[in-house]
Amino acid sequence: MSEKHNIFTKNAVGRFIPKTINYEKIIPFQGLGKYKPEGNKFSPKIPTNIDYDSNGDKKVNSLKEALIKSGLKDGMTISTHHHFRNGDLIANKVFDIAKELNIKNLRWFPSASFPCHEHLIPYLEDGTINRIEGSMNGILGRFCSEGKMKGTAVLRSHGGRYQAIQDGDVKIDIAVIGASCADNFGNANGVNGKSASGLLGFALGDSQYADKVIVVSDNFVPFPCVPWQIQGNYVDYTVEMKKIGIPEKIISGTTKITKSPDRLLLAEMTADFCDATGIIKDGFSFQAGAGGTALSVAVFFAEKMRKKNIKARFARAGSNKYLVEMLEEGLVEYILDGQTFDLEGIRSMQENSNHVWTSPFTSYNYHSKGNFASFVDVVILGATEVDLNFNANVVTHSNGYLLHGIGGWQNCLFSKTVILPIPLFRDRIPVIRDEVTTICGPGELIDVIVTERGIAINPHRKDLIEKAKKSNLQIKSIKELKEEAEKICGKPEAIKYGEEIIAAIKWVDGTVIDVVKKVI
Amino acid sequence: MSEKHNIFTKNAVGRFIPKTINYEKIIPFQGLGKYKPEGNKFSPKIPTNIDYDSNGDKKVNSLKEALIKSGLKDGMTISTHHHFRNGDLIANKVFDIAKELNIKNLRWFPSASFPCHEHLIPYLEDGTINRIEGSMNGILGRFCSEGKMKGTAVLRSHGGRYQAIQDGDVKIDIAVIGASCADNFGNANGVNGKSASGLLGFALGDSQYADKVIVVSDNFVPFPCVPWQIQGNYVDYTVEMKKIGIPEKIISGTTKITKSPDRLLLAEMTADFCDATGIIKDGFSFQAGAGGTALSVAVFFAEKMRKKNIKARFARAGSNKYLVEMLEEGLVEYILDGQTFDLEGIRSMQENSNHVWTSPFTSYNYHSKGNFASFVDVVILGATEVDLNFNANVVTHSNGYLLHGIGGWQNCLFSKTVILPIPLFRDRIPVIRDEVTTICGPGELIDVIVTERGIAINPHRKDLIEKAKKSNLQIKSIKELKEEAEKICGKPEAIKYGEEIIAAIKWVDGTVIDVVKKVI
């Protein structure tokens, strides 16, 4: 029987938020920088060496044995991470075992899910899994949007996920950490071995705070497994599996920049904007993802930097061959890498101590004494929709379906300048709306929208508006851009929703910024 | 007024332990692997980015300002670390400021103290500092032994210190972390800069669990300070000081092996023993400190390894030029370094990713899911005294004075074979006793005593006894060795103690293994 949501509060971005989600009290978003946490970090039980083999051998025969020894039972929270991306074989295996053991009502707490996890649909249907708290891409999102998941999904940013673990909002019973290299003690990394993905930062919080921690690898080395991105001192069991992932789906051989002229235009306009407004300067920093457009932005940045004979102090990444080239050419002093997208990224991380692996703790956790996302001069992000107040959506499409995760998107909004290069419409559906389907980020944090028909600057960024005036950039108001799109595509029709809430969208501080309703 | 200790329990090694130390209930040592902690790790307050500058600038003008902003007040616990060894200028400065502000009754919680901290004696006298919980070498130890410290000292091993912080046995109010390299955000390391000491592992727990964390450096770099051995996300304030340490006292230019023929003999006998008993074999691991004898042991090991054409999987260090040579020659695959003793150690750590910096968490914490000290095949340690049951002392001299810290000594006892190369007597005082002055480590963990007149093997190590039989090693019983010494030096007289307890010696699990009494 699903939860009734009948007491609602309007939160600081005007969205109606229920009193509980999954029968737990939630806090509505209170505005930027308003909610201050009280209380203390989650405190795991104190372990003792007495309970662990003095030779450091924590190896058990199978993942099943490890899960049973970890006390797998109904209602538990099981975490996995997404470093294997669409090549992950572990999460599916975990729930195959749960099903086999007739365990019910699990909460799956992945750092992200991928199309390969479609495999879990039957378990969501039969109640093995109650709900997913994590991103829901593609088919899982559709399933959730149609109201078929028993519990309510909860989506968090990468930083918000660390925050939730650290603060005890989510208590992980069993963390299963897949690693491309490990030793029997549980020291592990993602940088060596055939299933290498670069690093294991997304699993850090899980290792530190979960009650039981299982490390699974297809590549065991004698102690010490170095670097120990995951420290065996947090690990309970280690498991050897023949195959933990499909390498070509874990990581691409090489990342390629977009060939789409539309996207290239957006990328070039973005780089021109950064140049004209003085953002590209000696010692600056930037973050550009591995999406086609963002990738191209970095390439345009590199060109401009060469011309100006300047270098960036650091690039925050999603690393790839283009960024690695910039590092090796000396255009970038450091890559602070959150996840590695291609083989060149992995090689560079193996070889170059200026290619630094990070975690959501160092980069994104809002409940710490600062994090470095806010030091980044400029970040280039995507969005599915933006509204007239620059509020943006990154999880649902305009048809109401929940099809994407938040990733680091919310965390990156704290960068000094946030630019969204987006087409004015997609499939003849305008991207700039009166209201976005789902608010994932408040407009106060979004500075610039770059479209193929002009650039809109958030009115609160008077400094950028002034600088842009002196350029030949095509600056328009966001309202003008919206009207242009509607002239071409017509005003979009409203979507029909059911009343049922199928997902909650958390803000970086653990409050709820929006909810997603069932599509009917 | 000092604490009355009048209710005593006999602990598992036969020592009488009071009910409280510094008015806090303590747990007597219960035997090896007997005491299991209950409860949860210490949970620090949840911070929020809201309270920290979004540019990551945490710089304040002076250490005084940082201490005031951290809320320094009477009765607080202030931690510092000892990476600057006898060249440290920070701890003294902290208490100069406390004195200036008329703060009283502080608990100083250093990871170790050095002769340079003699400067603090007046503050111990006038009550600025109530007590030291940490090692007390030389003059501070004498001061403490004479009953002049207001509170009771508590000595912990490096691992025990991490355990105490993690478990909340010691709640640190303000941690002051000196670093040879830092950025404004508080990322810091000990590997770069003129005050480099290699790493900051001893300050890791302090950064993770202290209420307020201050990073002090004489070498600020723009973000990011990499490697971030201390993560700025844990740091509240950063302070630039012109001079944080005296480089030549922080680290020696080069470490030199002993020229003493007596010590060289002990070192050679130790290496011969390891060879004859099969401990030196391909893929083995060892730990030898930077003391004269231990250093020489490593050099003898190297010779034997070259002859056998084998290599060690790892050396646990205290790194120095000899170990670095072994790493670079390929005799050792990894150095797992806890502290760096010379410039070659620092260079190697900067250059070689197989020279790994560790912390008391990964290496020594007994309240974790294992630690790697127990994987080490053989460890060479010192001792001031050993008794007939192989119980050993490392903190007091036979005259009763508390003159040394525990360091990693207790933690290293968990190695697979523990060897103490010690002279049979020092200054005509026999080292093997009926009873040691202070028990720091239970005899069950100590396997071999190497003296210039023969080697004693703990009877429980039947395997080693068997192997040694086949060698030409001069094996004796520990009783025989004791009697030989007494024949030469006479039976030592008993020392006279007062009743007052001046220090408690913690075991790695937080229980009290012994106490030290005032010398009269």
In short:
The structure is a homodimer of 520-residue chains. By secondary structure, chain A is of the alpha/beta class.
Attribute tags:
homodimer, 520 residues, alpha/beta, Glutaconate Coenzyme A-transferase, 15 helices
Describe this structure as you would to a colleague:
The structure is a homodimer of 520-residue chains. Chain A is an alpha/beta fold and 520 residues long. Chain A folds into 2 domains: 158 residues, Glutaconate Coenzyme A-transferase, CATH 3.40.1080.10; 235 residues, 3-Layer(aba) Sandwich (Glutaconate Coenzyme A-transferase). Chain A is 25% helix and 23% strand. Chain A is built from 15 helices and 30 strands. Chain A has a 9-stranded mixed beta sheet with strand order 18-17-16-15-19-22-26-27-28. The first copy, chain A, has a 7-stranded parallel beta sheet with strand order 5-14-13-10-6-7-8. In chain A, strands 9-29-30 form a 3-stranded mixed beta sheet, with no helix packed on it. In chain A, strand 7, helix 3 and strand 8 form a beta-alpha-beta unit. In chain A, helix 8 crosses helix 9. The mean pLDDT of chain A is 95. The interface between A and B is large, with 62 and 62 residues.
**CATH architecture assignment name of the largest domain in chain A:** 3-Layer(aba) Sandwich
Shape of chain A: globular
Most extensive chain-chain interface: A-B, 62 and 62 residues
Structural class of chain A: alpha/beta
Distance between the termini of chain A: 19 Å
Topology:
Two copies of one chain form a homodimer.
Chain A (H helix, E strand, L loop, with lengths): L7 E3 L5 E3 L1 E2 L2 E2 L33 E2 L2 H7 L7 E4 L9 H11 L5 E5 L10 H5 L3 E4 L5 H8 L7 E3 L2 H10 L6 E6 L1 E2 L5 E2 L14 H6 L2 E6 L19 E4 L6 H4 L10 H16 L8 E4 L3 H17 L3 E8 L1 H9 L2 E9 L2 H9 L3 E3 L2 H4 L14 E3 L4 E3 L4 E2 L15 H4 L4 E5 L3 E2 L2 E2 L1 E2 L14 E4 L2 E4 L4 H8 L5 E2 L1 H12 L7 E10 L5 E8 L1
Parallel strand pairs in A: 5-14, 6-7, 6-10, 7-8, 9-29, 10-13, 13-14, 15-16, 15-19, 16-17, 17-18, 19-22, 20-25, 22-26, 27-28
Antiparallel strand pairs in A: 1-2, 3-4, 11-12, 20-21, 23-24, 26-27, 29-30
